[in-house]
Structure formats: C-alpha cells, structure tokens
Design brief:
Layout: E1 6-7, H1 14-25, E2 51-56, E3 64-71, E4 79-84, H2 96-100, E5 110-115, H3 133-146, E6 152-156, H4 159-171, E7 185-190, H5 207-215, H6 221-237, H7 239-246, H8 248-257, H9 259-272, H10 281-292, H11 303-307, E8 322-327, H12 337-340, E9 346-351, H13 359-362, H14 364-381
Helix pairs in contact: 3-4, 7-8, 8-9, 9-10
Protein name: Hydrolase
Keywords: Aromatic hydrocarbons catabolism, Hydrolase
Pfam families: EHN
Length: 390
C-alpha cells in the first residue's frame, strides 16, 4: 500500500456534538412543522468498513486530503470500479458487499473504490474557486492510479454522472480531447440519464443513420412519461438548483448555521426523489450527519453547482468508452433511448419498473445486476480487459 494511503476512522468530537445538541435544543420552528417528534435515532456511521484517506494533487490547486472506501473483491480477476456518488459516499454502502462478494462463481467480482468527492463528506475542499467537473474528474482518476489501477470502469448518478462522463472524455481511449493520460477508463455505467437528441453532428462516426432512425421513430409510453417527469422537475422541483448555481454562499450560510435547516433541505430531496422508499430514522440521520460534520462544512457541497453550471463537455460523444445506461422510473431526469446514443457506443440499456434517483440505496440489487451484466459481459467477450492493480 502507498505510504500516503492511511486508514481512516470516523471521529466526531464531543464539542461538535455538544454544539449540535445546543442548536437543536434552541431551534425555533414555524407553527406547523413537517418534522415529526420522534426523530431521535442514533447515527450509525460505523457501518462502512475499509475507510482510508490519502493526498491527491489536482493541477493548479493545493493538495487535497481525500477520504475513500476501498473494498477488494473476494477473488482474483476482479473488475476495478470507481463508484462516483452524487450526495455523499454513503450511497455505496449497500452495493459494496454485492459487488465484492457475489453469490455465484458465474457472476463477476469487483474491486470497489468510492471516494468522498472534494467538498463532500470527509474529504477536504479546495482553498480557491474554480474547482469544477474537470477537477473532480482529475481527483478521481488520480486516486485510481494511486491505488494501482491503470484501467478501470466507472459508475455514476447525479453529480457522479457528470464527473464520470468527464472522466470518459478526458481519460478514455479515442477521445477527441485525449491527453497523454487518456486510455484508463474502458467502460462506464450511468443512471442519471440526460442526453441531447440525436443529430447528424452529435454522433461523428455514424450520426446520419442514427439520426434517420430517430426521425422516423416514436417515443414509447415510458419514454413519454420520463420526458414529462423531466419537464415537471425543471418546472417545479429545480429551484434549489438555481440557488446552488447562482447563490451558493447564501444558502450555504443558512445550512452551516442551522442543523434543522440542513435536515429539512436534504430530507426534502430524500423523500421527493425516491420511489416511495421507506427511510428509517437512522438512515436519514446518517445521511444528514455526513453533511453536518463534513470536513469542508455542510455548505461546501453547494460549490460544485456554482463552478460546474456551464459544463457542456459531458454531452460530448466518446467512441472509445463502452457505455451502459439504467433508467429508474422515479428519477429526476430521463432521456429517450435514442438520446443515449449521442454519448458513446451504447452496449447496455435497461429500463426498470421501480426505483428513483438514489438507485444504489433504494434498489441496490437492481443496479448491481445491471453492472454485472454489462461489465461482466464485456470482460467475458474479450471486448475489454482489466489488468490487476500494480
């Protein structure tokens, strides 16, 4: 193990917990509060094992202390997988044992790496502005290289979608924006599905054929429902996005000062963005506490919106990275099937009948099965090959 990679224990000081209790005891609620009176569960942060920290150097920024989960597969030949979260690293908790310890020898095994993104969880944040999707992608890529993975696959939803898409473009083979560091990302699976409609220009290699098929196709019932849901989200549910993109400091001050504000701000999303998932008190408080006690503070997670608001490169077509897409009916943004083909060579697609925005947490077995089928199939067919860690 690299000498800079060190085990990490979650430790919240008594002073911070006392301060939190004090703020909660003196919180002032409106006359009708949506918060129930019995939210007194404990915070179970110890469920995640194999926690580490290491220093990552992102070009143009001070060194970052990155916290990550690293769970190796139970047998040789495991597929190295970077899981890139949206809200926080805890999203990986339920899929870790399924990926690393499959029940059958016929199922592929994975080495799982799940970092807390800079500004999130127990990772530090940059000390100056300008840290956007390109820098988040660089930090994740350099972490994988530091762990010895010269080639790997990625999985992402929410912000993980944008970051892994940027990784595909910058660090995948045959990229139009290829650099001397490209060629590491061989396959990518996403479950936050936002893509532009096909046109002759959006798919350089075979755009005209796909475009013509698209012109003469009709949307299926589920595609129409997905487009309607996407429209409703932008019309009714995206106010937070505008605030994060344009006024992150304003909302950040409120979230930093009031744990009740933080609770209501995040729990609203946990409730609205899932497919009637039955959140337990412990689950809610665990997710919120990771924000409350984040190394960079609860407001730091808003910065990614501000610095990445104009990112367009994630929509670029990349012929070198095999692409898989899973769609869940209660997700926020859903594109019709033909739209995905503007992102890269689509080798896997699955539309599910249940699940929402937090698929890894709500329906982990469905997401894992999709990754097994996609990545396992590519390896078995010989289309991609992952050498072991160095």
């Amino acid at each position: 193990m690299d000498s800079d990679i060190k085990p990490f224990n979650i430790s919240i000081s008594d002073a911070k917990i006392t301060q939190l209790h004090h703020k909660l005891e003196h919180a002032t609620f409106p006359d009708e509060t949506p918060l129930s009176d019995d939210w007194a569960g404990g915070v179970a942060l110890s469920d995640i094992k194999r926690l580490y920290t290491t220093t990552i150097h992102v070009d143009g920024f001070d060194p970052l202390k990155i916290h990550f989960v690293h769970k190796k597969g139970s047998r040789l030949g495991a597929i190295p997988l970077l899981f890139c979260h949206g809200c926080d690293f805890i999203e990986v908790a339920k899929i870790l044992p399924l990926l690393a310890n499959p029940d059958s020898q016929d199922q592929p095994c994975f080495d799982d790496v799940a970092p807390s993104l800079p500004n999130f969880g127990f990772s530090s944040g940059p000390s100056k502005p300008g840290f956007a999707l390109e820098q988040y992608a660089e930090s994740c890529h350099k972490l994988m290289l530091k762990l010895g993975y010269s080639n790997y696959a990625t999985q992402g939803g929410d912000w993980g979608y944008g970051i892994t898409r940027f990784m595909d473009i910058r660090y995948g083979p045959a990229s139009s924006s290829a650099t001397k560091k490209s060629g590491a990302v061989l396959a990518s699976h996403i479950n936050h599905n936002l893509a532009v409609p096909p046109s002759i220009s959006t798919i350089p290699q075979h755009g005209s054929l796909v475009y013509l098929k698209y012109l003469f196709s009709t949307y299926s019932k589920r595609e129409k429902e997905g487009l309607a849901r996407t429209h409703r989200f932008w019309e009714e549910g995206a106010a937070y996005n505008g605030l994060h993109c344009h006024n992150p400091t304003t909302i950040g001050i409120a979230l930093r000062d009031s744990p009740v504000a933080l609770l209501s701000w995040i729990y609203e999303k946990l409730y609205d963005w899932t497919d009637s998932y039955p959140w337990t008190d412990d689950e809610i408080l665990t997710w919120i506490s990771i924000y409350q006690f984040a190394s960079a503070g609860p407001k730091a997670g808003c910065r990614i919106y501000y610095h990445s608001a104009t990112a367009k490169k994630v929509e670029e077509y990349n012929p070198g990275v095999k692409l898989g897409v899973s769609t869940f009916p209660k997700d926020l943004l859903m594109s019709p099937s033909y739209h995905y083909r503007t992102l890269g060579p689509l080798v896997f697609e699955n539309w599910h009948n249940k699940g929402g925005h937090f698929a890894a947490w709500e329906v982990p077995e469905l997401l894992v099965e999709d990754m097994r089928v996609m990545f396992g199939g590519l390896v078995k067919s010989g289309e991609i090959n992952f050498p072991g860690p160095k």
